[in-house]
Design brief:
37% helix
Length: 264
């Protein structure tokens, strides 16, 4: 199940999550936290869903269908973070993947300032895995990250907030040849490195990665393996990213399914 915002352009959020679930052979359900009017050029507007209705969506799915894993994406406001946390605790969700979405690929803010405390104090302690990128990790950890040692310091700080595993995505670091993510289990570090792909079309990368982790957890893979498999999957999705629209195109989790006439 994905609990996240809707991307009208189809490249990120709920739409990217459900595509990823389908590509990996798991059934996807959703609770929409916010509507966005966006395309490859930017975000034109955001309309948060009332927290009570978000809770109703989650209950409707979990009371009937259930979920082997849940991921969260855009939560937008403090009230939404708290509503999602209440549901997570009520249903004792164990395989919770938290993607702490703060800004869009175009720089639009997607999380209110006063929601950060709610993230730190309520949602993260319930997470199995949290998947910040470098700017998000800096905000959660309260420090600057300039290199791989900075990644380790931030991972330790975020782990103290409660999640069992911390995966910091290293794509924002200045490494021309590769992209190295850091996984920390509270004791040991593991670096996951892939070639850096020369494309501007990376919209939805974090959504696809966290959705893929949740899918592999639902399939019974242990956390470290789920992360490694998801890293490989999103790398392929970036390799097959789509040059559509006039701005930053989306990565393509359905590269094996889509017709060859789609521009990539």
């Amino acid at each position: 199940m994905t609990i996240a915002g809707s991307d009208s352009g189809g490249g990120a959020g709920i739409q990217a999550d459900l595509k990823t679930f389908a590509a990996l052979g798991v059934f996807g359900a959703s609770a929409i936290t916010a509507l966005t009017a966006q395309n490859t050029r930017g975000v034109a507007g955001i309309h948060p869903v009332p927290p009570e209705f978000i809770g109703l969506q989650i209950a409707a799915v979990l009371d009937d269908i259930g979920a082997d894993a849940v991921k969260t994406g855009m939560l937008a406001t403090r009230e939404i973070v708290l509503a999602v946390t209440r549901a997570v605790e009520r249903y004792a969700i164990k395989n919770l993947v938290v993607d702490p979405v703060h800004v869009s690929k175009h720089g639009a803010p997607l999380l209110d300032d006063d929601a950060l405390d709610a993230y730190v104090n309520t949602l993260l302690p319930n997470a199995l895995i949290v998947t910040p990128n470098v700017p998000e990790a800096e905000r959660l950890a309260g420090l600057k990250i300039a290199d791989r040692e900075g990644l380790r310091q931030a991972a330790r700080a975020i782990a103290r907030l409660g999640p069992r595993y911390v995966l910091i995505k290293g794509g924002h670091l200045a490494d021309a040849d590769s992209s190295t993510d850091l996984l920390y289990d509270g004791r040991d570090f593991e670096e996951l490195t892939s070639p850096r792909i020369a494309t501007p079309h990376t919209h939805g990368t974090g959504c696809v990665l966290s959705a893929a982790i949740a899918a592999y957890l639902a399939l019974g893979r242990p956390p470290a393996e789920a992360v490694a498999r998801a890293k490989a999957f999103v790398t392929r999705a970036i390799e097959h990213s789509l040059a559509i629209g006039g701005g930053i195109g989306p990565v393509n989790p359905l590269w094996e399914k889509m017709s060859s006439h789609i521009r990539s």
